[in-house]
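Ticket opened by: R.M.
Priority: normal
Category: complex prediction / small molecule

The reporter submitted a protein together with histidyl-adenosine monophosphate and asked that the result be attached to this ticket for the collaborator who will pick it up next week. Submitted input follows.
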Amino acid sequence: MQALPGFRDFLPADCAARNYIFARWREVARRYGFVEWDGPVLEPTELYRKKSGDEIVGQLFNFTDKGEREVALRPELTPTLARIIAAHEREFKKPLKWFSIGSCFRYEKQQRGRLREHIQLNCDILGEPSIEADAELIAVSIDVLREFGFTVDDFVVRVNDRDIWVAFLDGHMVPREECSKFLNIIDKIDRVGEEEIRRRIEVFEREFDVIIPWLAVKDMLETPVKGAKDVSNRLVILFEKLSARGMGDFIQLDCSLVRGLAYYTSTVFELFDRRGKLRAVAGGGRYDNLIEQLSDGAAKLSAVGFAMGDVVLGELIRDRPAARQKMETAVRDESKIDIYVVIAKEERRPDAIAEIQKLRDRGYRVDYSLTPAKVGKQFQTAEDLGATIAVLYGDEWPQVKVKTLATREEQLIRPEELLAYLTRSS
Ligand code: HAM
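Result attached by the on-call engineer:
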């Protein structure tokens, strides 16, 4: 029987690659002062109906549980975070810098870079309305990718501010509450092409009795600042702040970027493969109203964050030789053992196992053959497992032979000297 479509089995090599990704994620998040949090994978369906937006609600893995509750596997972590923060806000000094690593589930059509279960790194700053928080978040997202060995030639951060479009629509007399319909049209601009967007804008215009010239929309994409001076100033400051961190080359203004999730309020950004082959590796933005909405006004806290998925990231790593080699070396080193104990004479097995336990108690990674095997085969296993040394229990007893596998050097010592020998040679 196979795993369900869009779900993955993790064989040891896949787990090692996944652990490599998690370790880099944690390392960089902590370097920026983020602390880890977690939440449940199952939530009330209502949590997503309220604010995530139609696209994600349409992709929910949801069902009625045995207690007649409407529940859903989380498609993202942001609503859970907002729910937790709304309940515990008073317990913490602001701003909060929180990160989480967790599985998300979306009933999407399985395709390159898109599965039904993926793992996200989420980094969010809560309770900091200033643009400094937006800059800090974009910076951490850039540094996460740099940590995997990617450079400015590999990826770009496309940045926009949704308020640019709100100002544009205000200028065309579109009622505020209808803006999200228009933003949904713009969100698809990359995927469906100019003809289809024109058609959708026409429908929108007919529905709302306004005229939005396509030329103006195109103009917005090329010279976006018209009619949105404050917003442009905010973006200019954001770009300056990132340039001051030496990250100016990584960022690019892209007015067609509005993001599919409904809760974003101003800054939005996505990290893309610069060679344009893959879908977004990460995406995020500012969501200043979500916590207030989820707490029915009880907690009011500005927020900005992003999430990076392991699926697209994994593909990007495999696509770039430098990043792939970095991962393969780290995974190989991580899976190596320190010592392989070769039992050449079965009557020495009890002595060998007693010593193996002592070595393991000291934190060494030690392995041996569980059943009798030819000496040559045991040495081959030692090589395969990447052991640094092999310790042979055989004819030399009451001494053991220690062999450094890289240099083939051999030395006879007494078993009780083994720990001191290892400490000396490490
Ligand atoms: P999102 O853009 O929906 O944002 O997802 C973030 C990333 O998760 C994507 O860029 C992509 O790498 C990965 N991803 C999403 N769906 C799939 C899928 N079906 N298969 C594989 N990978 C996928 C959010 O989830 C927001 N909650 C991010 C956020 C955090 N905003 C503020 N804080």
